[in-house]
Amino acid sequence: MEGNSSPRKNATDTKEGTPTHENGVSSKKEAEAAVEKTPLQRRTGPELSLAVQPNYDGGSTAPKSTPGCSSGTSGGPSSLSDGVQNDDSSQIYIEYKRRWFILILFIAYSMSNAFQWIEYSIIANIISKYYGVDAAFVDWCSMLYMVTYIPLIFPGSWILQKKGLRFTVIMGSLGTMIGSWIKCASVSPDRFYVTFLGQFITACSQIFILSVPTRLAAVWFGSTQVSTACSIGVFGNQAGIALGFLIPPMLVPDSDDVADVEKGLYIMFFSVAGICTVIFIIILIWFVEKPETVPSGAAASSGLAQSSASYTDIIIRLMKNRSYMLLLISYGINVGVFYAVSTLLSQIVLQHFPDENLNAGRIGLLIVVAGMLGSILCGEILDKTSRFKLVTLTVYLMSLLFMVAYTFVFDLQVLAFVFVVAGALGFFMTGYLPVGFEFAAELTFPEPEGTSSGLLNASAQSFGLVFTMAGSALLRSYGDKASNGMLASVLVLGAIITAAIKEDLKRQKAMRNACIQDGPRT
To answer: What is the rounded CA–CA span in Å between residue 179 and residue 206?
Structure first.
């Protein structure tokens, strides 16, 4: 990785006034004196802080919090750096403060795209009436995201692996911006094909988003923050969906006056296009490919493996990984059910509670916001416990439980109960997203995170497309109980498959091995 040579310096070089020999430490006695004088001297700069201690073997180490390692620092946002000694030279791992800015940029970009996935479906009755099209065509505005992702995931993952994060994020942000501006020209009852074209372009841009969180977390964040960073990265997609549930019903009224509907559509389309443009410009100027120094030993190992990897060989190895293949199916089922629930939510709510467009959007908002909390909480639990299979299976079973409750809660005809059950469902079902990503990264290490997570997303989109089409058909023919019951039944299968996964945490092993090679820490 870029800049790997710069940190290969001796510990005493980072301390002013300390004499050095060629091996970096004049003697054990001098090193002890330096430590006694400044036990934990910290070198700080505008973008990094690095705690360094002399090592009697001529290298340097820095406090590091890794599972299985003794540490003097916490793994929270204030964690400063990781250090590892390799053989006769020293490798220092640095976490740059800039990593949080990079993560925030990605979150904003992900939000701008995810918002547009659900902006039509949540006001399906209004869009159908305004453009004079069947509700099934409105559903396809959502399903486009699933259809386009399936064939494009392989070139998308290849681009992420070969061209890197910056190129990938710029391409996705550019496509999202172009698609959003095309929609601005679609405000006319006879221009549904224009809005469909704009949606198609934003849907294609999604391939440059969904595989990024695990890769970004691995490239920019240290071992004690990687799961949390991935969860926060997924948070952007969820936040965009949440706003997509909330804002369209507020802007576009359910009115027989075409002028009122057009005004709302203009406001929505131009606002989104403007925001996407600002995000694209900021990314173009300030989004950085990678830090000058890798943040962890696992990141270094993964980077070396990926730099020489053949994409075809990677796919073949992933297909031969039994545990990963089981996760691929179970993840696809769970997230596919979430996609179907989100797409059909408005239609189901309006069947039981007519004229409740705003509350339909609020229920969707609650599902996703609760899921954000679930994502962050699960990420924290994974970082602290490394119990990946236990957390994954627990979240899966709770998703199943509340999907069953969601199936029958509409019979009560009490909107408040729907809010409660939908919120609980969202907490676990949406919270499962980063858990699956991180479990896959563990099972497949050191394969590229973008490829393993990309295949997970392809599975989710495939199942989501099938479940949405089947659920929509059942909803029209037999009602919501049949539709939701079908979704609950497939979650049973997914839970069984999850239980069959063998927990082989390869990334955790790499971190522990790096710690063992470093020797004891203070």
So the answer is: 11
Which is more confidently placed, 31 or 220? Answer: 220
DSSP helix/strand/coil, 517: helix
- Please give the class, per CATH, of domain 98-511: mainly alpha
- Tokens 């510990």 sit on residue: 11
Residue 382 tokens, joined? 């994974």
Rounded to the nearest 10 degrees, the angle between the axes of helix 135-163 and helix 311-320 is 110
Take residue 522 and report the two structure tokens written for it.
């203070």
Residue 69 DSSP symbol: S
The rounded distance, in Å, linking the Cα atoms of 138 and 7 is 54
Contact 510, 301 (CB under 8 A): yes
Question: For residue 86, is pLDDT > 80?
Answer: no
Looking at the DSSP bridge assignments, the partners of residue 51 are 42
Tokens of 3: 């800049």
Task: List the chain domain ranges.
Answer: 11-94, 98-511
Place of tokens 């408005």: 346
Instruction: Give the position of tokens 């059910």.
Output: 337
Tell me the DSSP string of 423-462. HHHHHHHTTHHHHHHHHHHHHHTTS-HHHHHHHHHHHHHH
Reported as a pLDDT band with limits 50, 70 and 90, residue 62 is very low
Q: How many CA atoms lie within 13 A of 385 on its CB side?
A: 14
Q: Which helix (H) or strand (E) holds 503?
A: none
User: Which residue matches tokens 């916001």?
Assistant: 369
Q: Which helix (H) or strand (E) holds 480?
A: helix 480-499
CA distance 453 to 455: 5
Predicted TM-score (pTM) of this structure:
0.68
Task: With residue 128 as reference, give the H or E element that holds it.
Answer: helix 124-131
